[in-house]
């Protein structure tokens, strides 16, 4: 039927015959509220690969298994990293061809971060919820880099993570002079390892009950140590270039591996080898907090005191000079100033 009436001078519109073009934007819900996902399961993020997340469902439970997940649309701006405790919905069976969805991240207890360089304020989250950092450095081949180790320590102290240090390849060189740089850092526990003797049991005892992130320069033997601690890890190992003295990157991604030892179980988080570690995000006040006795004296320092050797009226420097901080006061002040100068000069 036409909407024109031939007997009328003016046409009339028959609204019943008008076809409305759908407007997708107008039909969208106006609210930003999302489902509560009360049925979400808590899972540990074990690794990330090209937008897909390997998660551990029912950790330590009778139905523990891994599954593959993607992120929900509302989390597109949320960093999801190894070590995160994620809220997962959908098909969490882990069967071939299934894909679950991460809809939320539980509150993190710690964040190990780095920046591209020292002037970059944009932080890169390395790992979440770790409570220990194990720094691996070689006594030789490649030569140890105290400043890089300092940067690792600063990042750990800023994140509230306990630092450990393993010196490998001690059969090639004596690490005594290198280790002298760190004798004033009480928070640091040190292990040494040679080709024929690796302190696996001692290191393993420190891993039990903890989530430990392994960091180190390429070629220092980090992957070899990880494989010794977690035999099923099968992390690729490499060699040092004889011309450049640099190691080849063998670990291409960050991954969580379960450690099982006589002392208990824990998590080893292996990271790719790096040659730099930016500190653009660090709060220098957190460095001083690691030296509790010095921090107490620093309360008497003038406002804005850097605690560096040229700082006027620094209470810590005066206390050390007067012998009020004991025999190790000078060594501890030297360690503090070295870390602060590394950050200040960054």
Summarize the structure.
The chain is α/β, with parallel strands linked by helices. The chain is built from nine helices and 13 strands.
Layout of SSEs?
Layout: H1 24-27, E1 41-49, E2 52-57, E3 65-71, E4 85-90, E5 100-105, E6 111-115, E7 123-128, E8 132-138, H2 146-159, E9 162-168, H3 176-179, E10 189-192, H4 200-207, E11 211-216, H5 222-229, E12 255-261, E13 264-270, H6 285-289, H7 292-298, H8 315-321, H9 329-344
Helix pairs in contact: 2-9
Structure in words:
The chain has about 350 residues and is α/β, with parallel strands linked by helices. It has three domains: about 40-105, Beta Barrel (OB fold (Dihydrolipoamide Acetyltransferase, E2P)); about 110-120 and about 130-270, Rossmann fold; about 285-345, no CATH class. It is built from nine helices and 13 strands. The protein has helices spanning about 25, 145-160, 175-180, 200-205, 220-230, 285-290, 290-300, 315-320, 330-345, and strands at about 40-50, 50-55, 65-70, 85-90, 100-105, 110-115, 125-130, 130-140, 160-170, 190, 210-215, 255-260, 265-270. Helix 2 (about 145-160) crosses helix 9.
